[in-house]
What does this fold into?
Amino acid sequence: MQYSKDELSKLLRQAKPLWLQDADLSHADLVDADLTDARLSGANLSDADLRRADLVDADLTKSDLSRAKLIGVDLRWANLSNANLNRAEINGANLSGTDLVDADLIDAWLTGARLNEANLSGADLRGADLTKADLSHSKLIRANLGKANLSSAKLNHADLTEANLRSASLIGVFICSANLCGANLNHADLRWANLSKANLSKTDLSSTKLISANMGESDLSEANLNKADLSETNLIGANLSKADLTEAKLIGADFSGANLRWARLTEAVYAKSTKFPDGFDPKESGAILVP
It folds into this structure.
């Protein structure tokens, strides 16, 4: 059923919560609407205008919000599991504690959005714009963030176990103490990123840009850093045991106090400015000194 503007106005004046499961609200004007605790599971809200709407605790499971305008909306603790948010505009929205498990967020705009403590496990965020978004303490287990823009985002203490971040932009991102075990960061851009104390064990960081990144005290055991650019990177106290640094660029990197036991440095390049742990001979490990 498609609702007219007058019918929508009457509905919004009714006592809460509103029960609108499977309702057709496509293209609806719901700007500033009070939809607190609304039951909207399976509803069609494609192309709807929900700017600044209040959807706290709303049930939007399996709803269609593709191309919807959700700028500045309050979605705290809402349930958006399996929802379609493809190309939705969610800039500046509050999604703290929101359930977005297996949601479709392909090419969505989430610039400056608050997603702290949100559950995005299994969500598809390919190509999404998460610039300056707050994802601290969020769950992104096996989420797909391929080619997403996470520049200057906050991911401190986030769980990105086995997440796909291939070719993602993570310039200046804050990922301190995050769990990235088994994640795919192949060809990602992590220049100036802060990955201190992060769990990067068994992570694919091959061909990744890590120039001037902070990886102090991070766990990079068994990580793949083949052809990665670690120029001027802080790796003080990092665990690189069994890591693959084959053909990596280590110009000016600081490995002071790092664990390089059984690490592979075949044809990795370093300079006099590169600092290695006391007693470690890079030449014996196959690394090449360049002028």
The mean pLDDT is 96. Residues 5-12 form the longest helix (8 residues). The first strand starts at residue 269 and ends at 270.
